[in-house]
Amino acid sequence: MRQAPAISFSRCDPMQDKASLFIDRVTAQETERILPELASLLHACVHDGASVGFIAPFTMDDAERFWRAKVLPALTSGERVLFIARQAGDLAGSVQLVVDTPPNQPHRTEASKLLVAPVFRRRGIGRALMGALEIEARSLGRSLITLDTRTGDKAEPLYASLGFDVAGVIPGYCRDPFLDRLDATTVMYKRLIS
Ligand SMILES: CC(C)(COP(=O)(O)OP(=O)(O)OC[C@H]1O[C@@H](n2cnc3c(N)ncnc32)[C@H](O)[C@@H]1OP(=O)(O)O)[C@@H](O)C(=O)NCCC(=O)NCCS
After folding, report:
1. pLDDT, tens digit, for every residue of 14-29?
2. Beta strands across the sheet bearing 144-150
3. Is CATH 3.40.630.30 the classification given to domain 21-141?
4. Within 6 Å (CB) of ligand 1, which residues are found?
5. Residues contacting residue 61 through CB under 8 Å, at least 6 positions apart
6. What residues contact residue 18 under an 8 Å CB cut-off, 6+ apart?
7. Cβ proximity of 93 and 41 under 8 Å
8. Of 188, 98, 101, 190, nearest to 148 (Cα)?
9. If you measure from the C-alpha of residue 155 to the centroid of ligand 1, how many angstroms do you get, rounded to a whole number?
10. Which of 56, 70, 133, 186 is most buried per CB count within 10 Å?
11. C-alpha distances out from residue 88 to 20, 23, 85, 99, 130, Å
12. Is the dihedral of CA 147, 5, 86, 92 positive or negative?
């Protein structure tokens, strides 16, 4: 599996204020260095109600454990690629590309845990992160991106606007982070035509 290079490679300025937003692909080493920032990002999103795999109570330690135990090893082994967004130096968002697909799905890849900190939302950062993810998927020769997102969440129109189609809805898929309720998930996909 391909390893991420030592230096982050992707820099694009999709905002009108081009100087202030950077999207970078980060190595495992860099990820370890910014673990507290990544933990704050995840913690803030979950406490804002995001359905990204966690339920309350969700502490900063829980958040840091996720990055350290689940993401770092996968970055080291090359099974995932992590992009972060920085605006004016602050960590504003992140997204992961899962490239560790089974042998019969070498063309597929998965978008995972798109997170934009609540204070940075509606500035085009989510769209920019997904743009970087798609460029990476194409550069790896992948022709299909899949993902799932809680039905009715803000992410759904974002993915639709980027050309993702709905494959279907699975009712009662996951627990709300705070309420005793099961939510549906929408499975989406995008074919990458070269
Ligand atoms: C979903 C999320 C990543 C969007 O990030 P963002 O940086 O605010 O999104 P953008 O500014 O790039 O918005 C892009 C498009 O998404 C849609 N969108 C984003 N936020 C929206 C909202 N609050 N209401 C309706 N549409 C919204 C719009 O179509 C928007 O385009 P527009 O601004 O031209 O109308 C962010 O709200 C988030 O982190 N949510 C919590 C985590 C989560 O649910 N992640 C998805 C996991 S699958």
Report:
1. 444 544 899 999 999 9
2. 21-26, 80-87, 90-98, 108-116, 144-150, 182-191, 165-175
3. yes
4. 45, 50, 52, 114-116, 121-127, 149, 153-155, 157-158, 161
5. none
6. none
7. yes
8. 188
9. 5
10. 133
11. 5, 12, 10, 30, 20
12. positive
Question: In angstroms, rounded to a whole number, what is the distance separating the alpha carbons of residues 129 and 115?
Answer: 9
Q: In this structure, are residues 148 and 112 in contact, taking their beta carbons and an 8 Å threshold?
A: no
pLDDT at 13: 46
Q: What's the CA gap between 156 and 37, in Å, rounded? A: 26
Model pLDDT for residues 50-59, shown as the tens digit of each residue? 999 999 999 9
pLDDT value, residue 8 = 35
DSSP one-letter code for 179: S
Task: Quote the CA–CA distance of 76 and 18 in Å, as a whole number.
Answer: 31
**Res. 9: pLDDT tops 80:** no
| Percentage of the chain exceeding pLDDT 90 | 89
Task: Provide, rounded to the nearest whole percent, the portion of the chain with pLDDT above 70.
Answer: 90
Q: Which atom of ligand 1 is nearest to the CA of 48?
A: 41
- CA of 98 relative to ligand 1 center, distance in Å: 21
For residue 57, cis peptide bond before it (omega within 30 degrees of 0): yes
